[in-house]
Amino acid sequence: MEEFIDRSFQFIEQSGWLAPLFFVLLHVFRQILFIPVLVICLLGGYLFGTLYGSIYSMIGLTSVSIVFYGLIHILPSMREKLTKLKKRFLKGKHQLTVPQMMIMRLMPFVHFHLISLYLIESTKDLKTYSKYSFLVSIPPALVYTAFGDMIHELPLAGTLIFALFLAILFLFFRKKRTNISWNDFFSLKRNER
């Protein structure tokens, strides 16, 4: 994988004005090659600088989400596997807000397409899905491109403090209401008697 990244880096660096296009395509194909988002965004920061690297990463991450939208409708088995993962991770009881999804996209241990699946299930069409996919792609593109090297080089204690900070932000932006269905409410009342 390291050799592939090195060759990709050299190819993009030498491709001139087509470099942004190849970089966006690398974002799309990184999932097939099991390359983490962090690595590609770091590469974008190194090649294009923070501003352009972030812009190209946002375009690339949104493109990945749109490709995923198409694949999830073509391959129902992939949707079933991710739905099981989502149920295990979210326990089926949480309604995520856009800021929470933005923070989850920043967490390297949260599966990228888990958020995409949640967006598919909570939006009504491709246009709305694309808009929200772009919004939740902004934080990882900015942070990983601009500060990815710093995050990557942090000692274990620094990494744990950063993860704790993200978890606190995640809890801060949660929805503050609980919905109880009619049947659940009355089943609780019957069980108390």
Automatic annotation (TrEMBL):
Membrane-spanning parts: 21-48, 54-75, 96-120, 154-173
InterPro entries for the chain: TMEM64 (IPR015414), VTT_dom (IPR032816)
Keyword line: Cell membrane, Membrane, Transmembrane, Transmembrane helix
Top-level taxonomic group: Bacteria
Domain VTT: 35-149
Locations listed in the record: Cell membrane
Record-linked Pfam families: VTT_dom
Membrane topology, from the record: Multi-pass membrane protein
Family designation: Belongs to the TVP38/TMEM64 family.
The name this protein goes by in its record: TVP38/TMEM64 family membrane protein
Lineage: Bacteria, Bacillati, Bacillota, Bacilli, Bacillales
